[in-house]
Amino acid sequence: MRRTAAGRLVAAAGIVALTACTAPADPPVEVAQTPPATAVVSTAASDVRVTLEALFGLHAYQVTAATGASGRAGTRSYGALERTTGELADALAEVYGADAADRFADHWSDYVTVLRGLRADTSANRVGRARRVVEQTATELGEHLSTISDGILDAGGLSALLQEPMTDLVAHVEAAVARDHPRAWTHAREAYAGMITVGRTVAAGIVEQFPDRYPGARASASAELRSALAQLLGEHTLLSATVMRKGARGARDFQSAADALNGNTDDLLTAFDSLYGQAASALEGPWRDRIAALADFAAAGDRRPARRAARQAMDQAADDFGAHVDELSESTVSAAEITGALQRHDAGLRRHLQQHLGAAFDEAQTSLRAVYATGADLATTLSEAIIAQRPDEFPTD
Question: What is the largest CA-CA distance in the chain?
Answer without folding.
Answer: 61
